[in-house]
Design brief:
transport, globular, seven-stranded antiparallel beta sheet, alpha+beta, 7 helices, 17 strands, ESYT2 protein, Immunoglobulin-like, 356 residues, four-stranded antiparallel beta sheet
Length: 356
């Protein structure tokens, strides 16, 4: 299958990732791939998990542990600045979810195939010529990390690749499913964090300037920075859409803000199945990957209702907390499908440009 997977990846790069990079920055508007060769080394599937509980009987959910280390030849350019760069090798490691749905009574038994990463995969790219590319005026604020984020986020939930296998399947409903729920995250406070700031050439340990990064899929939130405090109080609220469970997790990392490189203060990963089961969790969580530190969170699982019968009750309940969130707390969710357009006007500006 690998040669055909490579054809699909090339199409993905040209039709999805290339426009995404162009739209990320005005100076990248002429970005394009000039050559895409993924190489002959196929990806490995190191493990498969199949879900048999809490799933619809007309679907099969697989989680594949994907590992790819391959030599490749990918060339890109930005015509506006006459700059070129390339990729010699790519590594990617992560959990790819494959959903087979709907199951049908005729061959091929499966109506469509959906692929996506549950969280941002580990992606490493060995660039050639990237330094020259990032010296271009307007691009010097970018980095290879930002470029990796642009690429990887287009492969992470809620973005998904959906391939119909029969003609009558409702592809829009599979590609843009209604969220399973909304996770309201009260990012409250932390205690006993590590002091990372040092004085007198490292002889005296001081405090930290902590902040948090919260992720659910490709939805990312960053808290404010609390200066010189090992017991910070943020009292901030965020809301994230949850599209898949089981499998999705809440990821939190704490950092100490520094002028050069921010120091790591701990992390936390919470299975959203537990939050959905409890509906409300208000707990202190011990931070992982560090020697000390705790984080106080209040997590609410909000279920989407098909009617507005309980809207007044919901509005009343959130008034007390409305000042905690920068954008206010949500009481409802608007889902808009942009289906198609007809009889659009001809772009005369483009024609004038071509004629001139």
């Amino acid at each position: 299958m690998w040669p055909f997977i490579c054809q699909f990846i090339e199409k993905l790069f040209r039709e999805t990732i290339e426009p995404a990079v162009r739209g990320a920055n005005n100076h990248l508007s002429t970005f394009s791939f000039t050559k895409i060769d993924i190489g002959h080394q196929p990806l490995r599937i190191n493990g498969v998990k199949v879900y048999t509980e809490n799933v619809d009987k007309r679907q099969i959910i697989l989680d594949l542990q994907i590992s790819f280390v391959g030599n490749c030849e990918i060339d890109l350019e930005i015509k506006r600045y006459f700059c070129r760069a390339g990729v010699k090798s790519i590594q990617i490691h992560g959990t790819m979810r494959v959903i087979l749905e709907p199951l049908i009574g005729d061959m091929p038994l499966i109506g469509a195939l959906s692929l996506f990463f549950l969280r941002k995969p580990l992606l490493e790219i060995n660039w050639t010529g990237l330094t020259n590319l990032l010296d271009v005026p307007g691009l010097n604020g970018l980095s290879d990390t930002i470029i990796l984020d642009i690429i990887s986020n287009y492969l992470v939930l809620p973005n998904r690749i959906t391939v119909p296998l029969v003609s009558e399947v409702q592809i829009a409903q599979l590609r843009f499913p209604i969220p399973k729920g909304v996770l309201r995250i009260h990012f409250i406070e932390a205690q006993d964090l590590e002091g990372k700031d040092t004085y007198l050439k490292g002889l005296v340990k001081g405090k930290s300037d902590p902040y948090g990064i919260i992720r659910v899929g490709n939805q990312i939130f960053q808290s404010k920075v609390i200066k010189e405090n090992l017991n910070p109080k943020w009292n901030e609220v965020y809301e994230a859409l949850v599209y898949e469970h089981p499998g999705q997790e809440l990821e939190i990392e704490l950092f100490d803000e520094d002028p050069d490189k921010d120091d790591f203060l701990g992390s936390l990963m919470i299975d959203l199945i537990e939050v959905e089961k409890e509906r409300l969790l208000d707990e202190w969580f011990t931070l992982d990957e560090v020697s000390k530190g705790k984080l106080h969170l209040k997590l609410e699982w909000l279920t989407l209702m098909p009617t507005a019968d309980n809207l007044d009750k919901v509005l009343t309940s959130i008034r007390a907390d409305k000042d905690q969130a920068n954008d206010g707390l949500s009481s409802a969710l608007l889902i808009l499908y942009l289906d198609s357009a007809r009889n659009l006007p001809v772009s005369y500006v483009l024609m004038d440009t071509l004629l001139s």
